[in-house]
Amino acid sequence: MPASPTAFHLNGLTIQPGERVLTRLVISKLPSGTVIDVPVHVLRSTVPGPTLLLMGGMHGDEVNGIETIRRLVRRELLTPLRGSIIAIPILNIYGFLNFSRDVPDGKDVNRSFPGFPRGSLAGRVAHRFMREIMPLIDYGIDFHTGGAARANYPQVRALLGVDPEIDAMAAAFGAPFTLHAGLRGGSLREAAHELGKRMIVYETGESLRLDEPGIEEAVAGTLRVLYHLGMGPEAPAPARPSIACRRHTWLRARFAGVFRAHVENGQFIKKGQIYGSVGDPYGQQSVRLESPVSGYVIGLNHMPVVNQGDALLHIAVPE
């Protein structure tokens, strides 16, 4: 595993082994003149070792990752036995202030990497991260949450079967589900992959709502990754083995109307099973929905009013 350099140079600071520093990356200003900066925790051991990034709040309304890192910091669980930890509870401060996924220009930071110093606001946030943080890290966990009214069951997403270290890291996390997920253009994970950095994504819950079981899964999984990397003490094993799935698909609404789910997140359903219904709001007709595949429900739309094409159910097919 790569070893941390003698000193970190970050945001104009020199951070030595054994130091714990909270620094703030200034990104820009609001139209009012208020400075927007990103708090970054740096926690270093005196013993050389790898550097792990913990990233939350890439999308400002995804509060579960933010709360996960907040708890890890607050409970003083991020004291590396070797190497270093860089913890960023909120990258997209703009979205956090506005209860929004995106930055004020409407762009997605996680589709803007590697960014550009004179580009859009999202591109500038991505570029500052790539310049200041990315050169320092070896591994990363990027914490995310489902969209508005769409809840994800706790799951790790990673590019499986390509890099044994990524496979081992995902297995060490021990989320209820481990999904093979290709790289998306402009994402942090793609940018990390191109630079030889190993990164996984953890998803749980829905935006603007705390998912307590999913947050505790995230805390426990992070501690297991730290132990796997030799950076933390032994952590409790997961309650049950992770279910690996190389295939997963969204079932979408064929009709507009009122959607009623007949299944729950995490549940196994069989091909042909009725998983819900869509009816018109006037009580004149209703269509039962059958699953075309057998698999586990890992994402569920809680929005009752749906349009044609809306995602209703995310199904993972076990290996």
The proportion of strand residues reads: 25-35%
Low-pLDDT parts are: none
According to DSSP, the number of beta strands is 18
The major β-sheet equals: 5 strands, mixed, barrel
The average pLDDT value, as a whole number, equals: 96
Number of discrete helical segments: 6
Determine Rg (CA atoms, Å). 20 Å
Distance between the termini: 30 Å
- Helices and strands, in order, run as EEEEEHEHHEEHEHEHEEEEEEEE
Give the overall silhouette.
globular
Please identify the structural class as seen in this structure: alpha+beta
Residue share in helices?
Answer: 10-25%
Strand order of the largest sheet: 8-9-11-18-16
Domain Succinylglutamate desuccinylase/Aspartoacylase catalytic: 48-228
Protein name: Succinylglutamate desuccinylase/aspartoacylase family protein
Organism: Hymenobacter negativus
Cofactor: Zn(2+)
Detailed description of the structure:
The structure is a single chain. By secondary structure, this protein is of the alpha+beta class. Helix content is 20%, strand content 35%. It contains 6 helices and 18 strands. The strands form 3 sheets. A 5-stranded mixed beta barrel has the order 8-9-11-18-16. It has a 4-stranded antiparallel β-sheet with strand order 15-14-12-17, with no helix packed on it. A two-stranded antiparallel ribbon has the order 1-2. Strand 5, helix 1 and strand 6 form a beta-alpha-beta unit. Helix 1 packs across helix 6 and helix 4 crosses helix 6. It is globular. It starts with 7 loop residues before the first strand and ends with a strand. The mean pLDDT is 96.
